Amino acid sequence: MWVVANRHFGKLSDVWKHAALAEVLERERPQRYAETHAGSGAYPIVHDGERQFGILRFLDVAAHSEVLARSRYRAVATSWLSGRGLYPGSAVLAMTVLGDASSYLLCDLDPGSAADLRRWARELSMHSCEVAETDGMAAVAAWLDRHADKPGLVHIDPFDPDARGPGGYSAFDLALRAAEGGTPLVYWYGYDQPGEQAWAYTRLTALTCAPLWCGDVMVTGTSSTAGDLGRATTPGTGFGVILANVQAGTVSGCTALGNALAGAYDNALLPDGARGNLIFTTRTNGCPSGPR
Ligand SMILES: C[S@@+](CC[C@H](N)C(=O)[O-])C[C@H]1O[C@@H](n2cnc3c(N)ncnc32)[C@H](O)[C@@H]1O
What we know:
Layout: H1 12-28, E1 32-35, E2 42-44, H2 49-62, H3 66-69, H4 72-84, E3 86-88, H5 90-98, E4 103-107, H6 111-123, E5 129-132, H7 136-146, E6 153-156, H8 171-180, E7 185-191, H9 199-205, E8 212-221, E9 238-244, H10 248-264, E10 268-269, E11 275-284
Parallel strand pairs: 1-4, 1-6, 4-5, 6-7
Antiparallel strand pairs: 2-3, 7-9, 8-9, 8-11, 10-11
Helix pairs in contact: 1-2, 1-5, 1-10
The protein binds S-adenosylmethionine.
S-adenosylmethionine binds at residues 5-6, 8, 17, 36-39, 89-90, 107-110, 113, 135-136, 157, 159, 165.
């Protein structure tokens, strides 16, 4: 039996990450897309409490929200789930939104994930897609060096933001480098204590004056147990997306999506049977976008 390296697909944290990513790609339309931790191409859907609260609930409630209903994420997830029974990972989401007009560098250390990415790149007829079974930080740093004149978009989605790969970069270092260099960036972070809300934005904004935006989602509820990022639905757990060097319209599109998501999950039944909410907050350092 194939065991996927990414056990968290389709949970609520993926919903926010992928909804924002699809919105960014649709609006920015980068000619080049590079991802450090790409995971598998697509995942057979699992009907457990976490996915029920994540992608499956999202598809139910999205129909009743104007913003969510017309989101690109909803369209892509619906077509993959109803057509194939698969949940699309971020790389397949990117290929579906951008198509063959863009080129791709997709990195994952796990051989099964890399094989699945290659399979879907072939299946979707992507002619310019390199799958690198190697450390994503080193590969994407080299890609940034090679394309310094024509930057594409970098997506960084790490398990551990501070683990250094063989190239010497951590995921956080690479995010800082991309932001500073003017490259459009999507960076995901998570936490399991309410006091850590938006921690990655706080850290990054102290180090760069590149234009940053952060959309943070925190689960709240009546229980006072500590959060658990692995489950992504326990009160006190949160996750967010930081964008750098994107257009103002992209930021407003993601802000509208985050607000609509929180509204659609108002007083939702959490997997543990208690009621909960999503608190969506945004932060920006107000630096202007454009060549710096
Ligand atoms: C959270 S999953 C990625 C999910 C994917 N980005 C998505 O949103 O659908 C993290 C992946 O990172 C891979 N990974 C861990 N360390 C890595 C590294 N240093 N370089 C490349 N991939 C790595 C794991 O094998 C795993 O598949």
